[in-house]
Amino acid sequence: LQLENDLRRAVELDQLLLHYQPQVDALDGRVTGAESLVRWNHPKQGLIPPFKWIPIAEEMGLIEDVGEWVLRRACADLVELRAQGHSLPKVSVNVSALQFHDEFVATVSSALQDSGLPPESLEVELTEGIMVSNQESVVSMVQNLKDLGIRLSIDDFGTGYSSLSYLTRFPLDELKIDRSFVLGLAKGSQDVELVRAIIAMAKSLGLEIVVEGVERMEDLEFFLGQGVSVIQGFLFSQPVPLTQLSPLLAPEH
Ligand code: G
Ligand code: G
Ligand code: MN
Ligand code: NA
Question: Where does the EAL domain lie (predicted)?
Answer without folding.
Answer: 1-253
